[in-house]
Amino acid sequence: MKGIVIGILAAAAFALYVAAACIPFYTQPQLSKEQEAQIRAEDFYGEAYQGERAGILSENGEALEERVRLIANAKERIILSAFDMMSDNSGKILMAALLDAAERGVKVEVLMDGFPYFAHAWGNPYFLALAGAENVEFRVYNPVNLLKPWKLMARMHDKYLIADEDVYILGGRNCYDYFLGDHDGYKNYDWDVLVLTKAGASLDALISYFTSVWESGDCVTVGKSAFWSHNPSVEKAAGELAALYEEIEANHPGWLKEADYEQMTVPVRSISLVSNPVHTGVKEPVVYYTVTELLSQPGEQAFFHTPYIMCSSWMMERLSQVCEKNPNITMMTNSVANNGNPFGAADYYVHREEILETGLQVLEYDSGVSYHGKCFTVGDRLSGVGSFNWDMRSVYIDTELMLVIDGEALNRQLREAMSRYEAEAFLIRDGEGVRADGAKMQEMDKKQELRVRLLAPAAKWFRFIM
């Protein structure tokens, strides 16, 4: 009997703890009228070319190479903001390049979200070798603190790299092998934008945003403890990273050479940074409202890609209103069987018909490789790339960034790249997927089907934090 009582009390304590973590985010706020009035589609169009240029990085291999190149050629300052980073092959390559830059005297600032840091970097000798190096400061956004369950769900989902005062990369890729490099095995497809910004307008906005996160009370510096400075495992890891950089110099010398960014980019009229609030509480849906406002422009053919879509009732209502204003909107997302996010797959399984009823034309990507891209185009001028997924977490909980770029050449570049995925996707008609070549959609195997069916009830109650 005593054991039963203890079990009941433990279960009750656990339930209360979960409630303390989830309840602060259960109710989602509307966008304030003041904020809504500031978001106008016309403000995202430029009058003339101002000197900024941009190019799409569509392949995982080039995404890793260009990151290494930016780091290798930086002379004064490097900023890396990463939601997630691992000490796998591509993660070590980035850490080796950052460590070499720091040894050259470059100021290196690394910002990482607290939950992936706890899962993949805390106590890891490679991260400690980087964080403890001279000229490096490594900060963590919202570190995991079990004594503050009400903050556990907040994430910093931003992903960008800034080199000095003229070049940056921003997009949706995390810093590990699934997203970077030409590796065998499991991978995700995603997007980045490379921006050459001699005029400085968009870079100033991005650095200002970074500073607002970096200097917030939600970030702490890690890895500077004297305990780790002469730890044998950390010293060994530092030596391995130095040796890895020498291998890069020997085997991939082209990665380290300065690039002709003028040739790699096209001129654009304007680049706007769209962001959610950066605090750890529930957030107003700034990015979602902005993106849907841009998509809703009547007469403009619009496309958006998202790995998964999980809408609150307001989000669904908003999407229906947007499709009424502009019926020419196509969404591409993963099919249930192709979705690498089991919670996203389960929620889409439950709510697919509701999404179709909004008026969206829906394409389902079903190639067997999970699609992680977050981008959109509107007409022949606007393009958007960044970290924002169309789920309730990205709308109301996470920090998120999207670059909205006005320029016909970049729009064509992104549309051509998006259309290659869309050609492999299935158009959904009457609940069935059809493709011009007559191909059939993959079916869920028994393991996937069981997982989706088991998670579907949880999706009903916990979809706002998935």
For the structure shown, list the relevant keywords.
single chain; 466 residues; alpha+beta; 9-stranded mixed sheet; phosphatidyltransferase activity
Verbal overview:
A 9-stranded mixed sheet has the order 8-4-3-2-5-6-7-1-9, with helices on both faces. It has a 9-stranded mixed sheet with strand order 10-16-15-14-11-12-13-17-18, sandwiched between helices. The longest helix is centred in the N-terminal third of the chain and has 21 residues, at 2-22. With 466 residues, it is α+β, with helices and mostly antiparallel strands. It is built from 17 helices and 18 strands. Helix content is 41%, strand content 19%. The model has no long low-confidence stretch (mean pLDDT 93). GO terms for molecular function: phosphatidyltransferase activity. InterPro entries: PLD-like_dom, PLipase_D/transphosphatidylase. It comes from Candidatus Acetatifactor stercoripullorum. Residues 152-174 form the PLD phosphodiesterase domain.
Summarize the topology.
Elements: H1 2-22, H2 33-38, E1 53-57, H3 60-73, E2 77-82, H4 89-103, E3 107-113, H5 114-121, H6 125-131, E4 136-141, E5 160-163, E6 167-171, E7 192-196, H7 201-214, E8 219-222, H8 226-229, H9 232-251, H10 253-256, H11 261-264, E9 266-267, E10 270-275, H12 286-295, E11 302-305, H13 313-325, E12 329-334, H14 342-357, E13 361-365, E14 375-378, E15 382-386, H15 392-396, E16 401-406, H16 408-422, E17 425-429, E18 432-434, H17 446-462
Parallel strand pairs: 2-3, 3-4, 11-12, 12-13
Antiparallel strand pairs: 1-7, 1-9, 2-5, 4-8, 5-6, 6-7, 10-16, 11-14, 13-17, 14-15, 15-16, 17-18
